[in-house]
Amino acid sequence: MNKTRTHEKMSIHEFLRRYSVLISAVVMLVISTSVTKGVFLSANNILNIGERAAAIGIVALGQMLVILTGGLDLSVSGIIAVGYCVSSLLLEHTMIPVPLVIVLMLLATTLCGALNGFFVSKTRVSPFMLTLGTSMIFQSFAFVLSKGATLIFTRQIDWMKSAWGIEGVLSRVFPTFIWLLTSLVVIFILAYTRLGKNIFLTGGKELASKMSGVKTGNIKFFVYTASGFLSGLTALTIEFRVNMLNVSSTEAFQIASIAAVVIGGTSLKGGEGNVYGTLIGAFIMASIVNVMNLTGINVYSQNIVKGVVLLTFVTISFLLSNKSKQGYID
Amino acid sequence: MENKAVLIQRIKESAAKNKLLVITLVLFGFCSLYNPSFLSRLNINGMMLSTSYMSLLVIGMTFVILTGGIDLSVGATAGLATVVLAYGMNNWMIANDTITLLFSIVFVLVISVAIGLVNGLFVAMLNLPPLVVTLGMTWVVTGIADTIVKGKPIPLPATPLKAFLKFKVFSVIPMMLIISLAALVLFIFVFEKLRYGRRFYTVGSSKYAAYVSGMNIRFVLINAYSIAGLLSGIAGIFIAVNLNAGYPKAANGYELYTIAAAVMGGVALEGGKGKLLNAFYGVLILQILKKLVVFTGLANISGFLEGMIVGTILVLVLFFNSLKSKGNWHE
Questions:
Q1: DSSP code of A38?
Q2: A101 and A255 in contact (C-beta within 8 Å)?
Q3: What is the pLDDT of residue A326?
Q4: Total-model pTM
Q5: B119 lies in a domain?
Q6: Chain A residues whose beta carbon lies within 8 Å of the beta carbon of residue B314
Q7: What does the pLDDT read at residue B320?
Q8: Cα–Cα distance list, B247 to A90, A143, B80, B251 (Å)
């Protein structure tokens, strides 16, 4: 009785701010289950969502690192497209062994990310505009390389399945496994290394951290490069799951990754956010697409929903953030 | 002799003032010498047509960038405009063809202003980042257009509109170009001479200054995005007439094109700086550069290579702009 509690009362605003991610996840679960009359929770469907969430989730981790530094990577979709192209061209036209193909593909996407990182860290170009430009460059480059044809990855899938012994249900859990493993690495970096702390600092107050000795340029270079690498990893998990792909199918990753991060409660202004939120955000984005497929909403109208979801959650996150009242507009 | 020196001096001065015009002319001259087919009727006509809708888009983009924002949804809005126009003219039957046509046009314009208005409301009322808002809006708008056409282009029926817009004054200059040049002159006048136009500069260069001088910042922002929406709608009508069809991705990537043109013309992305006329020169320079790449035989241009070129140019321009302002914290 006598115990004094520091947080006696929590305002509704504060409550929503802290738990918005969980609330949206629960709301999503309830709506999805009721709309699909329970099909949503069937084992098969959950595996399905896991595969989709993994694809969005891995690229969203990279996107989150970038957003934490106050930037934005609009080029992830283009980088994934480059990844598809590199692996399929190497698989079809050369006899390079599959492990080397995978390494080369990851190297190519990491290089794309490093290109972004170079410009952002060494020049004063705005990251938004820069990645908008490189997004167009990468996407068009991939299209020109693939000549718009369907890309095939059979050789790689066969090798991965036989060499790593991934069979049956295991092969459906594999992308999710990679996703969670990557998340653990990112959690470790953000929580326990100096690099992680510097990522938060760079996004919070860039000038202040620069003056107190944080090499913000190097941090930025790292996050964009990491985003490129993680986009490559996403490409790999999708190639593993889908045998035939078209480069223009990657466009949705641009908006889906940003939406997942924003739903996860990471501030677009940088310096604030966590991996757990992004994990749930990716899950929510995957569920939304899944429910739309189950209820038979056509592909074209699904894009409307994606846009509306992004707008809604950006609005929610700004209404809930404490910073939203800054600026001279009010 | 003295007169000659004065004349040269004057030419030098005005050249320094109109750097972009000089670059445009030099590129134009170089292209026509490099490959005479640059001056062919077909090529010049094609360039005049695309200049007409690109310059409309760049006017809207300049409005938005001047306030310190960005609008990624102009391409999608123009695409929706082509679709709605074609759909309306094919499917609506109101009294007679002329009234159907007029109604379709008005409807297209209303929709495009509404899209701009929603963008503006999000940015001004909720203080959300324009890039993310307009990115979300791009998906909504393209989704709506795709839902209407269900994946395949709708042909545009022959109408007086087509005849009018493609009518050639002095059998050379298409009506489209004259309309957009008139719009360009009008908006240059608005920016340079009217208090209304100067407000966009003030809001862009310092929200604080705008605030203390009693300006309604929200009103200015909403105006900028709505005008961008309206002009994308008109550009969409031009594009539909050009393509003879309505197609959701008809103006795909044009937002990047216009941003590149505006930035090349010295419109600063931080807002508050830049001239509309220079942004227009940016459009011309991009058009000529594109042709130059075709002529040098690097590639026969497809839509996707075009994206690569425009993207590369944008990145390079941003890079050189950033070199200029290096080491200056005040900017």
A1: T
A2: no
A3: 47
A4: 0.86
A5: yes
A6: 129, 132-133, 136
A7: 81
A8: 35, 20, 8, 9
Task: Flag whether B312 is in a domain.
Answer: no
Q: Verify whether the Cβ–Cβ distance B143 to A125 is below 8 Å.
A: no
DSSP labels, A143-182: HHHHTTPPEE-HHHHHHHHHHHT--HHHHHHHHHHHHHHH
Of B70, B131, B150, nearest to A300 by CB-CB distance is: B150
The answer to whether residue B287 sits within a structural domain is no
Measured in degrees and rounded to the nearest 5, phi and psi for residue B155 equal -70, 145
Q: How many CB pairs under 8 A join A and B?
A: 149
B132 with A314: Cβ contact below 8 A: yes
φ/ψ (deg, to 5) at A74: -80, -5
In degrees, to the nearest 5, what angle opens at C-alpha A32 toward C-alphas A231 and A39? 100
- Cross-strand pairs, B169: B173
Which helix (H) or strand (E) segment holds residue A245: the answer is strand A244-245
* Contact present, B260 and B319 (Cβ < 8 Å): no
How far away is chain B from the Cα of A90, in angstroms, using its nearest Cα?
A: 22
Question: Would an 8 Å CB–CB cutoff place A133 in contact with chain B?
Answer: yes
- 3-state SS, one letter per residue, for chain B: CHHHHHHHHHHHHHHHHCHHHHHHHHHHHHHHHHCHHHHCHHHHHHHHHHHHHHHHHHHHHHHHHHCCCCCCCHHHHHHHHHHHHHHHHHHCCCCCHHHHHHHHHHHHHHHHHHHHHHHHHHHHHHCCCHHHHHHHHHHHHHHHHHHHHCCCCEECCCCHHHHHHHCEECCCEEHHHHHHHHHHHHHHHHHHHCHHHHHHHHHHHCHHHHHHCCCCHHHHHHHHHHHHHHHHHHHHHHHHHHHCEECCCCCCCHHHHHHHHHHHCCCCCCCCCCCHHHHHHHHHHHHHHHHHHHHCCCCCCCHHHHHHHHHHHHHHHHHHHHHHCCCCCCC
d(CA B80, CA B293): 30
Nearest to B211 among A129, A132, A328 (CB): A328
Condensed to tens digits (0 to 9), the pLDDT of residues A243-293 reads 788 888 888 898 899 999 998 888 888 888 888 889 999 999 999 888 888
User: What residue numbers bound the domain in which B137 lies?
Assistant: 38-251
Q: Give the integer Cα–Cα distance in Å for A283 and A260.
A: 8
Q: Is residue B237 part of a domain?
A: yes
The verdict on domain A48-314 having CATH code 1.20.120 is no
CA B106 to chain centroid, in Å, comes to: 20
> How do residues B117-136 score in pLDDT, each as one tens digit?
999 999 888 888 888 899 99
CA distance B285 to B270: 23
What is the complex's ipTM, to 2 decimals? 0.83
Number of separate domains in chain B: 1
